[in-house]
Predict the structure.
Amino acid sequence: MHRRKLAALTALAAASLVFPLGALAQADYPSKPVRIIVPFPPGGTSDVMGRMLADELTKILKQPFIIENIGGAGGTIGTERASKMTPDGYTLIQTGVGQNAVAHGLDPNLKYNSLTDFVHISQVHSGPNVLVVNPTTPFRTVKDVVDYAKANPGKLDYGYTHAASGHMAMELFKQTSGVFMTGIPYRGGGPMLTDILGGTIPMMFINQDAALPHVRAGKLRALAVTSAQRNPLYPDVPTIAESGYRGFEALSWSGISALKGTPQPIVDKLEAAVRQAMQTDAIRQRMSAVGFIIPEQGATPYTAFVKQQIDTWTRVIKTANIKPQ
């Protein structure tokens, strides 16, 4: 009897150590460097947003937050790889419109689920596309474009990069306005920008930060932005909604997420740290300089936003019958 009591007490003591040790590990988080997978190559908007946030999280949480770029297939390669990592809070993933919304409409066999494989911590940035035309065209308003396109079906060209936010904005615009225009595909935004500046194509949707220097120099004419409200860097440019298409919105966005199964105390700590980071002068000044908006912060609004974006772009893609490349 004595031996049985001793064994039971020993087992109870051992079990009692498990929870405190696990809780201590979570309380000490992070106790080593944290990796943020950015599923795009260095240098683009996604990479810039990821590094900006990583810098501030490093200061707030007193451990290095290190960017790892894993590009390819519109962000899906890096996202798929991240979905298989250990959910311990030491690997985070930058989520965004292409890989976590558009990809679900394009590929029914996508090897991850943006709603069930990740815990969405907070949205980081949001910004519109801008409908721009070469200034040699006669178009000065959205109405001018729609009127011409309706009078000349298929004779108005535009440039696009497959499944990018500008492509999605154009498809939504065509469906909303009921016009038929001819898309000219490009493998990247650089060549497409070169061609519209040179007059090879008359129009396109492009991220507002990329368009801004050319609009300011008079090399492109901005007709409308795709956000619900006017963009502060384009105060005189109306929204598509203001131009006659109420409710129109098409955004470029990114956020930060963890892997499903990450302990809730770690998720909560990261959410609080991201909120704090997004209020710093460094991030506010950098975002406003390029016309990006700091969205509502937190896991609840970001999770709902991701679902809404998946629904929106899946519907647009199916209507347009867009296929993966």
Q: What stands out?
A: The first helix runs from residue 2 to 27.
